[in-house]
Write a structure and sequence with these properties.
With 516 residues, this protein is mainly α. The protein has 21 helices and no strands.
């Protein structure tokens, strides 16, 4: 009963902290991290433990699927160069900088353990950065770069982490001859497995009953991760490819009555997992601090140095890349595939400062094994956990609470390309609806034609009218189906991105539900 009471209290506290964070325009993971740290000071706090092997699967898998489902492939292709730089180079620079720093500060730390520590603190968190930048209307290009990075850098960082942990457990050093084949096999095998699995299991995610379908979605999410890890692939990369494939090829057939509650459930689960990740790590801080004894303060100093290195390494890469790309644009011009904001020094500063760490770092640190293959304690596991939580708490508090004021001070604004695409999609959708009921002479069809014609005029004048109205039976359903087909066509042809498509999809879902 005591455990249940603690769970209820912690969920209530997380909800209150998230509400307060939204009121002041801060990312809610910042206050969850602060709350998790405060738990270490609460007398009589429960001593909960979690199997390290379960941590990544439980906390990261659903959050990856949720993020990947909304990923815009068109925008990823448009910004592939800066995203690739952040996913590979920035993660690599951060991992190397932290590893060398850790070895310098703790000479007896094995290289494999130092590299694992670097990979743990390397990937920024998706929820923290986007929670801020969406509130302050950051330029769309920067937002897409940050979202693409936060989705894919988990795969690169955790792949390095996985190989480093295997090397530490095996007691052998990392060599290129052993690393390269495993890396290539893992990457290409994971991509292929994710795609094939999505095609094979797609019918199972859209069973007729909503609750059954949601349970099946979560079961497949965990199942794909577990199966990939069991056969030696990257669970995180396999799951990203799986989720993107499902969203592009399976979401279209899902009815509105199923999609609306499904999205609500996933959003809630992601929040609960974020909350419990911070809680569980927070509950470990007290015992870790006690075990460290006289080493507590020196280790805290090491953790603060790691925090500084994490922030500086990202700045070093982003600013160096930004200077190079602006020099290239000065020589050859800026010719993007579609209208978008130019790379600027101010944008580079924001991207550099938007490197808050979160649940992936916490889960990866918690997943470090407690013992080696021979039963000996894993070297410096307590230091890794302390560094991970310090980096997460430090970046979320320092950067998370100052990112919005920094954006306002730099004067960066969004020219609303998504809004323009939404209006275009609405106009085309209304026109498709008119064509679908053009030959219907019933009174309901005539009323709908007047409504849709007026909506076209409003959206041509940059209005915000939506495809909703008085239910009108089969005529409205036919019109909505035509508008949905037009929206899918516009997305497939890259006329609109996934952000605009999901806005239209939500409007059509509510219109379909309103029509009965």
């Amino acid at each position: 009963m005591e455990t249940f009471e603690w769970i209820v209290a912690l969920l209530l506290g997380a909800a209150l902290l998230a509400t307060f964070a939204r009121r002041i325009g801060a990312p809610y993971p910042t206050f969850l991290a602060i709350g998790g740290a405060c738990l270490a000071l609460v007398p009589g706090a429960p001593e909960w433990t979690l199997d390290p092997h379960l941590a990544l699967t439980l906390f990261v898998a659903p959050i990856l699927v949720d993020a990947a489902f909304d990923t815009s492939l068109r925008d990823l292709r448009d910004n592939w160069l800066p995203v690739t730089g952040l996913v590979i180079a920035a993660v690599g620079v951060t991992t190397a900088a932290v590893a060398f720093t850790a070895r310098w500060l703790v000479p007896d730390m094995p290289w494999a353990v130092a590299i694992a520590l670097g990979a743990i603190v390397a990937p920024p968190d998706a929820a923290a950065a986007t929670a801020v930048v969406r509130q302050v209307k950051l330029p769309h290009r920067i937002l897409k770069i940050l979202e693409g990075e936060s989705l894919l850098n988990d795969a690169s960082a955790l792949l390095i982490y996985r190989l480093a942990i295997l090397a530490a457990l095996g007691g052998s050093g990392l060599t290129f001859s052993s690393f390269a084949p495993v890396f290539l096999l893992t990457v290409f095998g994971s991509v292929a497995a994710g795609f094939v699995t999505a095609r094979l299991t797609r019918p199972l995610t859209q069973l007729g009953d909503t609750s059954t379908s949601i349970i099946m979605q979560f079961s497949l999410t965990f199942g794909v991760w577990i199966a990939a890890e069991a056969i030696g692939l990257s669970g995180i990369l396999t799951l990203v490819v799986y989720a993107i494939t499902i969203s592009r090829r399976g979401g279209e057939q899902m009815p509105a009555r199923m999609r609306v509650p499904t999205f609500a459930v996933w959003e809630t689960v992601v929040f609960v997992l974020n909350a419990f990740a911070f809680v569980l790590i927070g509950l470990q801080l007290g015992p870790i601090w006690s075990r460290l004894g006289d080493l507590a303060l020196p280790y805290l100093g090491i953790a603060l140095v790691v925090l500084a290195i994490v922030i500086l390494a990202r700045f070093a890469w982003v600013m160096a890349y930004g200077k190079a790309i602006r020099a290239r644009i000065a020589r050859h011009g800026f010719n993007p595939p579609r209208p978008m904001s130019r790379p600027t020094l101010q944008g580079g500063v924001v991207i550099s400062w938007a490197g808050m760490r979160g649940i992936v770092t916490l889960a990866a640190a918690f997943a470090v094994p407690e013992t080696l293959s021979d039963g000996a304690p894993f070297p410096h596991r307590d230091l890794i956990l302390l560094c991970a939580f310090t980096v997460v708490l430090g970046t979320l508090v320092i950067q998370g609470l100052t990112l919005a004021p920094l954006i306002a001070w730099l004067g960066l604004k969004d020219d609303d390309p998504v809004g323009r695409e939404v209006r275009l999609a609405r106009i085309e959708g209304y026109r498709a609806s008119l064509e679908a009921i053009a030959d219907d002479d019933s009174l309901a069809a005539k009323l709908l034609r007047k409504e849709f014609s007026a909506a076209i005029e409003l959206n041509q004048a940059e209005g915000t009218d939506r495809l909703v109205g008085t239910p009108a039976g089969p005529q409205r359903h036919k019109a909505i189906a035509a508008a949905r087909a037009k929206a899918l066509e516009l997305r497939r042809s890259a006329v609109i991105g996934d952000d605009a498509y999901h806005v239209i999809e939500e409007e059509l879902d509510w219109a379909e539900l309103a029509a009965g």
